[in-house]
Amino acid sequence: MGTTLWWIRRDLRLADNQALAAALAQSAHVLPVYVLDPHILESAHVGPTRVAFLFGGLRQLDAQLRGCGSRLVVRCGIPADELAKLVTEAGADAVFAEEDFSPYARERDAQVRQRLQNSTGRSVPLELRGRPTVQPPQAMLKDDGTPYVVFTPFSRRWKALPRPDAGTLERPPQHISTPSGVASLPLPDAPTGAAAAPFPPGEAEARRRLTEFAEGATPAIYRYAQERDRLALPATSLLSPYLRFGMLSARQAAVTAFEAIAQAPDGEARRSAAVWLDELIWREFYVSVLYHFPEVRQHSFRPQYREMAWDNNEAAFDAWCEGRTGYPLVDAGMRQLRATGWMHNRARMVVASFLTKILLIDWRWGEQYFMQQLVDGDPAANNGGWQWSAGTGTDAAPYFRIFSPTAQGQRHDPDGAYVRRWVPELQGVPAGFVHEPWKMDRDAQRATGCTVGVDYPERLISYAAARERTLRAYRAARDSFAQAHPD
User: Fold this and answer.
1) How many domains does the chain have?
2) Is 386 a catalytic residue?
3) What is the pTM of this model?
4) I need a surface site. Which of 214, 236, 297, 443 has the fewest CB within 10 A?
């Protein structure tokens, strides 16, 4: 029966792990391996908060494995090199891993496959089982064989395919026999500079959060449609970091959504659970877009915006990053991100719209900054979200849809609780002014302890003037493209 390597990448869990289950089915001995990849860890798109969460997840996984009589072997280097060495050291017959779909992951896996076949003295296969999505992007094609670029038909296709249920989920193993003579690096410590992310890493915490969200007397999943955009409410699942690193599988989340829909006590609860399922499908839509159109990491999906005349003011960008734009909802979101490595999704849309359509700064600047800061930063979802907000992507918001941060705050944080939590300068400002403190007269500002321009920044720019500038810039880009491409 021999020995198999289980190469862990984005699947830090034992339950519903198809790669691990396949490795255990094939071999008497399985060696769990994680390779610290310098290409990823040293990337300009990676920051300490996400790395700290990953390293914490590795520690949790090692503890789980030891409870099964196994352990985690950690190596650092180019994956193809390290895996070839491990195959030789362990006498392994195969390497099993969960499939990954990012452009780098596909290139890396091709290199590993070639190395294992050509440099180990024997042909050792790389077997890919399972995936970080429910449906593989290769299967998400229209009848004419082309990929979807609009969410609604993609969602219909997704829902028409065979769906997982509780009986199809893989059970966690009780015992894993692991060779004892293979050396491992020590589990890495968290890097310096990580934010205090409110996400304890690990599979057990992921399961706890999923259960809390979907079960109980009045579970949040049945209020999701009504409350998900309320910035100060604990109305979302807070599962994105766990899905990002596979501490929870996409199939586990989808099964929970399907069960909640089936068991909903009324139509409104059923609709809310279905809305949460749609959010899971949006995640898979962006995976599919990146899979079929990998060039979106470098430029706008819509060609008419690839030559946009962005303003790219560095001082304005720094103010946005640091949460001192003078617009309270924008500043609250950016300060939440810096403090915790996470931001409410409604706030993400508002701050992204503000950067691209108010400050007229290239969406790629914001995309990279988010990837540096987010604990749940994912190449596909982050790129998709930024291009949606900028109006440059697939199924994106139209260029003329420009969020007013003031109106968004009044609608989704009506009493100002979210803003006051993250912008303490506005603590004493009444709800009627908390989203537009510049409208208070000087006496009112002094009385509330918040003088605009002293205690809290002046607005970087007038929303109305910026909106008109942005509309002109987008129209100019469209007109220029139309002239250059008359067909």
Assistant:
1) 3
2) yes
3) 0.97
4) 443
